[in-house]
Design brief:
By secondary structure, the protein is mainly beta. It has one helix at about 15-25; strands at about 1-5, 10, 50, 55, 60, 65-70, 75-85, 90-100, 105, 110, 120-125, 135-140, 150-155.
Length: about 160
């Protein structure tokens, strides 16, 4: 045992060594793990949301705030408000997921396939030109792409 002569406190040598090692490590800039210390492992974001300003195509309008949200499990959800200046129109959309350089990784597949010959096509019928319609859709993609997704684009027609 060591004795602190000013306080009379008795200390075990191993505590002194441990304290000295920790102090030296902190002085040197090393990280000493403690209970509750965050780990350096970065977890993937819970979701990524892409939002658009107002889009026009032919007679159709998709209003500002349209958004796709993609999730690490390979699912994606869409919500928008759309209308047309003509009766019996339809908004057709394809959604492409891209990397940070703008390269297409994959296209979203419609989870409720409307056209078996084209599973990446999303369609919203717009029967009455006086109405605005809420459009929701669910898509899927290979979840292996999730970490690479940085951008998204829409290809539209009306």
């Amino acid at each position: 045992m060591n004795v602190n002569w000013s306080t009379g406190e008795k200390r075990r040598p191993c505590k002194l060594v441990a304290t000295a090692v920790a102090a030296a490590a902190l002085t040197a800039g090393a990280v000493v793990p403690t209970v509750g210390t965050a780990h350096a492992t970065v977890r993937a974001a819970a979701s990524k949301t892409f939002t658009w300003n107002t889009l026009h195509k032919g007679d159709c309008t998709m209003f500002s705030g349209a958004r796709w949200t993609v999730y690490p499990n390979g699912t994606a959800y869409f919500r928008a408000t759309v209308t047309s200046s003509d009766n019996n129109d339809a908004w057709l959309m394809r959604a492409r997921l891209k990397d940070g350089n703008g390269a297409v990784l994959t296209a979203l597949r419609n989870a409720a396939i409307q056209d078996p010959a084209n599973p990446t096509k999303f369609v919203k019928n717009l029967p009455d030109h006086t109405q605005r319609y809420v459009w929701t859709a669910k898509g899927t993609f290979d979840r292996g792409w999730y970490d690479d997704i940085k951008q998204m684009s829409l290809v539209n027609s009306c």
